[in-house]
Write a structure and sequence with these properties.
Rossmann fold, N-(1-d-carboxylethyl)-l-norvaline Dehydrogenase, domain 2, eight-stranded mixed sheet, 50% helix, 14% strand, globular, binds nicotinamide-adenine-dinucleotide, binds SN-glycerol-3-phosphate
Length: 344
């Protein structure tokens, strides 16, 4: 069997951090991976008067989305999506969830049929009363086996090599081991579990809880309230998975980085939490704060709150998820934030 050729699809804050690990690891595991280059697809834009791909390829730094972090020289920025995935056998999807559908439209019929994929995207696809994890969306659309990676992973910290853990929910154990080889380092520990849905759903739903935690901080309520929001949020996450998905594993919530640990890190210092806190303190709309605070990075939590609201409404189950509902109403329906904890 030939060596695996990796391509990274997405080059934001997390995409760049994970490209760094992949670039380092393909050079370490040359028995498994083609180490000559790791293409990273970049949605082309100008930054400080120059094309972002040129900046990345000349300075080996994504100065817009991951400034101050050196990328390995084998990570090569490519603006053309088809060219980036040409010949790739191991595809890593890592982009804000709102851009996946358009990306798949372009990739449909263009990827190697023997390739496999992993998604690091945190979100869900909702179409009325139907809900899908992105691993299933990618798998169905491209016809390739797709695993999922999610965990307590604030990208800037992973990029600085401080100790972190993550979870890969794999389709086959062999796939799991491949992804572990691609991402694991002494300071980035990759655990494996046979639970693609549980890992994916934890990553999506915790972003709603993180928005609630930001509201609590904006209101100045303190640590007891934040802990209560985390506890209630985790229970709603678990309840949601068990109600609407088959065979989700308890360990994905309680033992793996994908569950409690990601709720905690996201509620302490994630972007969703930070911008939600500013929403309360500055009384400005989310889109304005996102632009001002994140320099092009994208929020996921308020969109997932809306997606989940649409789905629960169709299923007539909104009342079973009061915290998810409060986050939706405050973010999108002008419910006063002081009502966050009412009725919880
Ligand atoms: N940043 C983190 O700490 C982190 C950690 C774990 C998981 N994640 C998840 O990973 C996913 C990707 O997050 P990220 O931090 O890499 O992205 P990001 O928030 O930094 O978003 C910026 C990216 O979006 C791209 N973009 C902007 N407009 C676009 C368009 N019209 N079409 C296509 N792409 C466009 C930009 O080119 C850039 O690559 C998200 O689902 C996120 O929840 C993020
Ligand atoms: O910064 P956030 O809120 O998008 O969260 C980042 C990661 O998902 C934390 O694990």
């Amino acid at each position: 069997m030939g060596k695996e050729k990796v391509a990274i699809i997405g080059s934001g804050n997390w995409g760049s951090a994970i490209a760094r690990l992949a670039g380092l690891n393909v050079s370490k595991h040359t028995d498994v991976f083609d180490d000559s280059r790791v293409p990273i697809w970049v949605f082309e834009e100008d930054f400080e008067g120059k094309k972002l791909t040129e900046i990345i390829n000349e300075s080996h730094e994504n100065k817009k989305y991951l400034p101050g972090i050196q990328l390995p020289e084998n990570v090569v920025a490519i603006p053309d999506l088809e060219e980036a995935v040409k010949d790739a056998t191991a595809l890593v999807f890592v982009m804000p969830h709102q851009f996946l559908a358009k990306t798949l439209d372009i990739l449909d019929g263009k990827v190697n049929k023997n390739a496999k994929a992993i998604t690091l995207i945190k979100g869900v696809e909702v179409k009325g009363a139907d809900i899908h994890i992105f691993a299933d969306v990618i798998e169905k659309r491209l016809g390739i086996s797709t695993s999922a990676l999610s965990g307590a992973n604030i990208a800037n910290e992973v990029a600085k090599d401080t100790f972190s853990e993550t979870t890969v929910g794999y389709r086959t154990e062999e796939d799991g081991k491949l992804w572990q080889k691609l991402f694991q380092t002494p300071n980035f520990k990759v655990q494996l579990i046979d639970d693609v849905a549980g890992v994916s759903l934890c990553g999506a739903l915790k972003n709603i809880v993180a928005v609630a935690a930001g509201f609590v901080d904006g209101l100045g309520y303190g640590d007891n309230s934040k802990a209560a929001i985390m506890r209630i949020g985790l229970l709603e996450m678990k309840h949601f998975c068990q109600e609407f998905f088959d065979n989700v594993k308890e360990e994905s919530f309680l033992q793996e980085s994908s569950g409690v640990a990601d709720v905690i890190t996201s509620c302490l210092g994630g972007r969703n939490k930070r911008v939600a806190e500013a929403f309360v303190k500055e009384k400005k709309p989310f889109d304005e704060l996102e632009k001002k605070m994140l320099n092009g990075q994208k929020l996921q939590g308020i969109h997932t709150a809306k997606d989940v609201h649409v789905f629960l409404k169709e299923r007539d189950r909104i009342g079973a998820y009061p915290l998810f509902d409060k986050v939706y109403q405050i973010s999108w329906e002008d419910l006063p934030v002081a009502k966050l904890t009412e009725g919880l």
